[in-house]
Amino acid sequence: ILGGYEARPHLKPFMASLQLDGQHVCGGFLVAEQWVLSAAHCTEETGDKLFQVLLGAHSLTEQEPHKRLYRVRAQFPHPGSNKHNNKDDLLLLQLEEKAELNADVQVLPFQREDRDVAPDTVCEVAGWGITSHSGRRPDRLQQVERPVISRDVCNHRTRHDGTITNNMMCTDSRRKDTCKGDSGGPLVCGGVAEGVVTAGSRVCGNYKKPAIYTRLAPYAAWIDGVMASADG
Ligand SMILES: NCc1cccc(NC(=O)c2cccc3[nH]c(C(N)=O)cc23)c1
Question: What ipTM was estimated for this complex?
Answer without folding.
Answer: 0.90
